[in-house]
Amino acid sequence: MSTVQGMTTKFRHMQSKSLHSWHLGKVGVHSLGLGVSAALSYWLMTTLLNQASFLSRDDNLLGGMWAAISAVFVFHDNYDQSVDAALIRLAATVVSCALCLSYLLVFPFYTWGLAALIGIGSILLTLANHPDAVVTTGITIAVIMVVAEISPLNAWQQPILRLMDTLVGAAGAVAVAKLTQYLHKHKAH
Fold first, then answer.
1. Does 100 fall in a domain?
2. How far apart are CA 19 and CA 52, in angstroms?
3. Surface-to-core class of residue 15, CB atoms within 10 Å of its CB (0-12 exposed, 13-18 middle, 19+ buried)
4. What's the structural domain count of the chain?
5. 0.85 cut: is pTM over it?
6. Is 154 left (phi over 0), alpha (psi -120 to 50) or beta?
7. How far apart (Å, rounded) are the C-alpha atoms in residues 144 and 162?
8. H or E, element range at 137
9. Using alpha carbons only, how large is the chain's radius of gyration in Å?
10. CA-wise closest residue to 142 among 74, 89, 96, 91
11. What is the pLDDT along the chain (189 residues), one digit of tens a residue?
C-alpha cells in the first residue's frame, strides 16, 4: 500500500469517527431535550391541576400524562419544526375537543359515537387540507371519549382539560426546542 493510500484510509477513518461522534452528540442532545420537555410539561400540568380542588387525583395525573405526550409529539431538533408540529398538534386538538365537547354535552359515551367522531374529524381535516393532523385527531378523540366512559360524571370537562394539557405540553416542547437551539448556537461560537 502506498503512503498516499495509507494516509487516505487513515483520513477516512478519522472522518468517519468524527461524523459518528457528531451523530451521537446530536442524538444525545435530541434525547435529552425530548425527555426534559416531557418531564417539564408533566410537572407543569400536574402542578397547575393540583391547584384545582374540583379535579380528582386521576384527572391530575391524566393531565400530566397528556401534557407529556403532547411534548413528545411536538419536540423536534429544530425550533421551526417544533413550532410547526405544535401548530398541527393544536389544530388536531381543537378539532377533537370541539367535536367531543359537542357530543358529550348531549350524549354519554357510546362506541358508535366514538367511531362517528373519529370519522367526522378525519373528514373535516382532510377537507381543510390538513391530512397530517388526522391521526392525532383520532388519537385525541379516542382518549377523550374513553376517559369520558371511565369517568362519566362531568364527562364534558374532559375535552376542555385535554385542550389545556395539550397547550402546556406544546408550549413546553417549543420552549425546550428554543433553549436547545440557543445553546447549540452559543456552543458553536
1. yes
2. 50
3. exposed
4. 1
5. no
6. left
7. 7
8. helix 134-150
9. 22
10. 96
11. 555 565 555 545 545 555 455 455 677 788 888 999 999 999 999 998 888 888 888 888 999 999 999 999 999 988 999 999 999 999 999 999 999 999 999 999 999 999 999 999 999 999 999 999 999 999 999 999 999 999 888 899 999 999 999 999 999 999 999 998 888 777 755
Is there a domain that residue 1 lies in?
Answer: no
114 assigned to some structural domain: yes
Question: Domain range for residue 119?
Answer: 20-188
Q: Say how far apart CA 104 and CA 160 lie, in whole Å.
A: 11
Q: Which residues contact 101 (CB under 8 A, 6 or more apart)?
A: 156, 159, 160
* DSSP-H helix ranges across the chain: 3-50, 57-74, 79-104, 111-127, 134-150, 157-188
Kindly state whether residue 10 falls inside one of the protein's structural domains.
no
